[in-house]
Amino acid sequence: MMLLSEAEVDRVAEDELLDEARDMVSALELLLQQVRTNGLPRDEAARILRHDAYNLKLKARSVSLPGLAPLTHRLDDYLSGLESIENDNIVDLQAYGDRISALLDGEQVTLEDVPKVVRELPHLNTFEVSDVTITDTEVMLVVPQRSAARVVERELANCGYRVSDRARAARGAGPDPGDASRPGDYHHGDAAHERG
Q1: E strand or H helix that includes residue 158
Q2: Contacts (Cβ under 8 Å, ≥6 apart) of 161
Q3: Which of 92, 66, 98, 64 lies closest to 77 in space, CA to CA?
Q4: How many domains does the chain have?
Q5: Are residues 62 and 107 in contact, defined by beta-carbon separation less than 8 angstroms?
Q6: What DSSP state is assigned to residue 191?
Q7: Where in the sequence is the domain holding 148, given as residue range(s)?
Q8: Cα–Cα distance for residue pair 105/117, rounded to 1 Å
Q9: Global pTM?
Q10: What would the pLDDT profile of 45-90 be if each residue is shown by its tens digit?
Q11: What string of DSSP letters covers 18-59?
Q12: Which site in 12, 50, 97, 113 is 20 to 30 Å from 65, CA atoms measured?
């Protein structure tokens, strides 16, 4: 019986994971072909792909192949909101499969190039920009802890909400002296927020 070193065991395990990843990408391509030919219902295909993409993402974390983990994570993100595979999705998913296959087959991607490669992949639009309407919304926030209120207020202000302090104004107090970024706009405790 031959004993393997720790490095050899790691290499064997990584090779097995890469083989499994190749099999998953091949299964993706086969599944897309079944959808194209109406051999598989589109919603069932989406369910299977979501499951496979999630498993591929988990396996990619264990492999030291630069770029594989972010690519598989992006694929999982793409599929997470998809209920049915439509024709546009087939083209996008084929691009993912081709990119991941190239990486698994030895294409070299430097760590510096990974963000560019990931940004070039298709992304799923979850809403139609033309469906967005701008509204003037007022929100009442009641947070008894001043520190928590301060964090929530800062986040609301960063999202474009105007923050006023009815409780502070009723006491005759001025703006919070500890916050000079937007004097008079922040408060603690009860608050009304208007989108401004």
Answers
A1: helix 146-158
A2: 139, 193, 194, 195, 196
A3: 92
A4: 2
A5: no
A6: E
A7: 138-195
A8: 16
A9: 0.61
A10: 999 999 999 988 888 888 888 888 899 999 999 998 889 999 889 9
A11: HHHHHHHHHHHHHHHHHHHTTSS-HHHHHHHHHHHHHHHHHH
A12: 50
Which residue matches tokens 């963000």?
115
Q: How far apart are CA 123 and CA 92, in angstroms?
A: 8
pLDDT for res 46: 93
Q: What is the amino acid identity at position 55?
A: N
Structure tokens at 94: 């084929």
- Amino acid 73 reads H
**Inter-CA distances, 157 with 18, 104, 139, 178, Å:** 46, 45, 12, 16
Residue 25 lies in a domain: yes
CA-CA distance, 108 to 131, in Å (whole number)?
41
- What confidence tens digit (pLDDT) does each residue in 136-148 have? 666 666 677 778 8
* 142 Cβ neighbours under 8 A, 6+ residues apart: 189, 190, 191
67: left (phi over 0), alpha (psi -120 to 50) or beta: left
Looking only at the bridges linking them, the beta strands covering 161-164 and 191-195 are antiparallel
- Domain's final residue, options 127, 148, 181: 127
DSSP for residue 129: G
| CB-based contact 118:125 (threshold 8 Å) | no
120 lies in some domain:
yes
Alpha helices, DSSP H, located in 1-145: 6-36, 42-60, 68-80, 87-104, 114-120
